[in-house]
Amino acid sequence: MVKIAKKTFLLLAVWGVSAIASDILVSVNGRDITKEDADAMVRATAPNMTYDKLSPQQQAMIKKALVEKVLLADLAKKEGLDKTPEFKRNVEKIKRELLVNMWMRKQLENTIVSESEAKAFYEKNKARFMQPAKVHARHILVKSEKEAQAIIDALKGLKGEALKKKFIELAKKKSVGPSASKGGDLGEFTKGQMVPEFSKAVWALKPGEMTTKPVKTQFGYHVIYLEGKKEAQPVAYDQIKDRIIAMLKQQQFTQKVADITKELRAKANIVENGGK
To answer: How confident is the model at residue 12 (pLDDT cuts 50, 70, 90)?
Structure first.
């Protein structure tokens, strides 16, 4: 059951929505409950979810909860709770928070980051947007050092495509690892993705080379062949442009709000309470 905080429910009541008929989910004593109301309730516990993405059973639960809240709100009003000082104080707090949130959203919407600003930031900070170095390796995993050494001996003297072809052949026949059917192919990986002993051995190789001694790990003994290596390089600008723009926009917005609030505090009559 999706729960909604008291504050969120009060905001739903304060906002009030005029909706087209297709957005109305249910009416309770003449009051319409809309998809916007349902989305607000869903987002209270699942920020990236919407009512339309829920299963029929979950949608029914949301509608039931919204109907019950309208009924309970009406009951509370009949009992005069909306006339109490506590209710009025809370409504004023919610109004202030709503005003601040709307003002913040407006400032953020009005903050513009140009393409040239984003590109300049990227060029100046390429080191922050690096793709780590990667290797593409194959291995033959066996249970004993003797088996691994025998495989190394069988591959000695081979180079280039002949070495790769024979390595793949032996990996399919001899390896006990899950990659055996793929000729020992482990795909691409970065430093730290493999156990330390394996990682140290593979990163010491040059493309087209294999280990000349068995490499022992917790899984057994490995013979490793390095198929390729990619050095660290910057992520392409087009791939991270939107992220950079969003980041710069947030930075500018934060600074703008800080400057405005500083100016407002300087002009305001603020009296500190002497209490701790």
So the answer is: very low
Domain ranges, residue 193: 133-231
Max Cα separation, the chain?
Answer: 93
For β-strands 233-234 and 220-230, DSSP reports them as unpaired
Specify whether 146 is located in the same domain as 221: yes
158, 166 contact by CB (below 8 A): yes
Helices (H), ranges, the chain? 6-15, 35-43, 56-78, 85-109, 115-124, 145-155, 160-174, 196-203, 237-267
Whether the Cβ atoms of residue 255 and residue 247 lie closer than 8 Å to each other: no
Q: Do 10 and 90 share a domain, yes or no?
A: yes
Query: Do 26 and 80 have their domain in common?
Result: yes
73 & 144 share domain:
no
148 domain-assigned:
yes
> What is the pTM for the complete model shown?
0.56
Looking at the domain assignment, is residue 106 inside a domain? Answer: no
Per residue in 199-249, pLDDT (tens digit) is 999 999 999 999 999 999 999 999 999 999 999 999 999 999 999 999 999
Q: What distance in Å separates the CA atoms of residue 50 and residue 58, rounded to the nearest whole number?
A: 11
